[in-house]
Amino acid sequence: MAKIAVLGHGVVGSGVVELCEKNKESIQKRAGQPIKVKHILDLREFPELNYADKFTKDFNVILNDDEVSVVVEVMGGINPAYDFVKASLQKGKNVVTSNKELVAAKGAKLLEIAKQNNVNFLFEASVGGGIPIIRPLHQCLAANQIDEIAGILNGTTNFILTKMVKEQMSFDTALQIAQELGYAERNPAADVEGHDACRKICILASLAYGKHVYPENVHTEGITDITLEDVAYAESWGGAIKLIGRAKMIEDGKLVAMVSPAFIHRESQLASIDDVFNGILVRGDATGDVVFYGKGAGKLPTASAVVADVIDATKATKTSESLSWIDSNENFVIDYTLSSVAFYIRCTAENMEEAKSAISEQFGGVEFLSRMDAPQNVLAFVTKVMVEKDVEQKLQNLKNTLQVISKIRVLDY
Amino acid sequence: MAKIAVLGHGVVGSGVVELCEKNKESIQKRAGQPIKVKHILDLREFPELNYADKFTKDFNVILNDDEVSVVVEVMGGINPAYDFVKASLQKGKNVVTSNKELVAAKGAKLLEIAKQNNVNFLFEASVGGGIPIIRPLHQCLAANQIDEIAGILNGTTNFILTKMVKEQMSFDTALQIAQELGYAERNPAADVEGHDACRKICILASLAYGKHVYPENVHTEGITDITLEDVAYAESWGGAIKLIGRAKMIEDGKLVAMVSPAFIHRESQLASIDDVFNGILVRGDATGDVVFYGKGAGKLPTASAVVADVIDATKATKTSESLSWIDSNENFVIDYTLSSVAFYIRCTAENMEEAKSAISEQFGGVEFLSRMDAPQNVLAFVTKVMVEKDVEQKLQNLKNTLQVISKIRVLDY
């Protein structure tokens, strides 16, 4: 029998305890032995639970219990999660976490400590909730060079954008509904400003490319400025607006990595991923595009990913070779303004015909978009793929002719 | 260094050799050691290849070479593949295969032999080509009860159906194009009659439910009878026709398993999987729906899945506990006529009003469909979900009122 401890009895933690009980037979079959929750760390008390006797407020009870071979960290945040995880690994315990903030900030360090102690640090649940993505990326796609990863990595923003696209709701109204349904926090900044998606693309890129990609090096834009006008233009262009986290290897081992809203064509496998669902596209040199789709959050989906890692941890006899990356002081993410991409640009102009011909001249040909009920003085167009910096310069050159209202990347997945 | 042998230098076999060379650095990194192809078994000769010296026509050269720790079987068919795989496992060698016919017919036996010899029999490439599905199913979704699996498992038929839906091509014309493009064999029966999809759903169901599901127990219908009229009605209903392989656990450990064309709603994640792509939906009790999408066949995608298994085989120290199922003489797939499903039915009738009211009376309410340019004497409708046998009986009761032309299941994924 394998005994585990769960740090944090919140949404995910209680889901882990529930799932270990509910599916104990199939879990035992897959693991080759029963798995039992021995301790639960939480500062709160839950006297009404039939497993109230498992709770402790003292982490040392867990750390010093040699029977505990796997510690599940589902507290969230960096402190004290980092210290608890580090201490557990150093004591020779495997650690499983769903904490994307921790993995994105400290992954390389914790993987190194795990290796030194011949145990595993596993984090399938940190990206995509219940969608298998970490394990497929390092195991199933191991024979591939990963050219690119792009995903809808945050369910809250995808829910809001879906409401805007399908029901013509404003951002504020959609956010309010997301909050009422419990999809968005009262302080929604981490979601709507893109930080959550940024942490997840950092984890995926670190794993795919072997060196830690830090969130502070990844340009991140949220969805707070997206308007229904932009949504309507995206539709007239032939697609929808999604918040996309992406990472792409370019020459010299450099990486383009970014989180931003983007126009995605209707035919794309990412375009039909709606509501709170997540979808992640991995472009391998051998497999071509592979897409993983499912619920990116929620109690049982996330708990299911945690428990799958627990099963793996109980079976492993040494540190995984493939689930690893190294730390690096060097920032190998390039300045995003040097990367190439197409842009949708919406602007106002006094003289429409003059503006159109000036735009065409500056950009060397663009696709002008139209939509019903657009104000007379509004113009929208999509550029060719070009270096971002050059787009900025060209818009600067046009500053006497037009005023830019919004600017959204156009991606081709 | 791990040394491997490849049985069969066809499309997949040559892809395995190519990939082992092309991505050798990343493969070595993931595997923790270099992986080298030592022997290739083929009756043909390839003197022009720069690795011509690796070829042998004698399987015993491979079997008796103790340096070879992994045998890759990519010959296809049951004979002599079964004998070669069995002998390899008995000699203590790991075996990796892409051969769905072999796994569907002999999986339980070969998994048992692998276990007796403490080696692994791996077959990620047998379903979904380069899409990771076998490993996610038994590892990542290990904490779930799998309620249901449904997939577009055959790229050839999906290509043909896509041509029919998007370009109004007839089945025969679309098949001819598929053959010209190399997507369909000269004898396309295994694809268009559903046998290939049947083998794949058998493999997935065996793994998900732990007992071998044999193809001969799974009712299988192909797409040869699908017409453009049916395609048009599917569109007017709000979806498309796809060839779906599915397996669902019901009470008493019994299984509903079937391959058939089906109406799939436009909003479904399976509806937007077009051309030669495959998509597999797994419905877990904890994760909800998870969908895996990508190229279901082709040289490098399939080779990439094979090589990922090779990497796993070289790292394993014992037989996988979770990648297994048992043999069973008992057929636990229920008679398909006893399962419940909705049907689309297209028929002719002499007196339309009389027929409509007779249909409504028999079926207790149906959804009548209409389409442009339908002949005056044609009626199409969708029933409620009911036992298949009862649908047959009701149509029998109506035999003096209408003549059934086609009958296609309507699925809700």
Features:
homodimer; 413 residues; Rossmann fold; Dihydrodipicolinate Reductase, domain 2; 3 domains; eleven-stranded mixed beta sheet; six-stranded parallel beta sheet; elongated
How would you summarize the topology of this molecule?
The structure is a homodimer of 413-residue chains.
Chain A: E1 2-7, H1 11-22, H2 24-31, E2 35-41, E3 55-56, H3 59-63, E4 68-73, H4 81-90, E5 94-97, H5 100-116, E6 121-122, H6 134-140, E7 146-152, H7 155-167, H8 171-180, H9 189-192, H10 195-209, E8 219-220, H11 228-237, E9 239-249, E10 255-265, E11 277-284, E12 288-295, H12 299-315, E13 340-349, H13 352-363, E14 367-369, E15 378-382, E16 386-387, H14 388-397, E17 402-411
Parallel strand pairs in A: 1-2, 1-4, 2-3, 4-5, 5-6, 8-10, 10-17
Antiparallel strand pairs in A: 7-9, 7-11, 9-10, 11-12, 13-15, 13-16, 13-17, 14-15
Helix pairs in contact in A: 1-12, 4-5, 5-10, 7-8
What integer value in Å does the Rg of chain A equal?
Answer: 23 Å
Helix content of chain A: 25-40%
Number of helices of chain A: 14
What is the end-to-end distance of chain A?
A: 46 Å
Average pLDDT for all residues of chain A: 95
What is the CATH architecture descriptor of the largest domain in chain A?
A: 2-Layer Sandwich
Record field, number of beta strands of chain A: 17
SS content category of chain A: alpha/beta
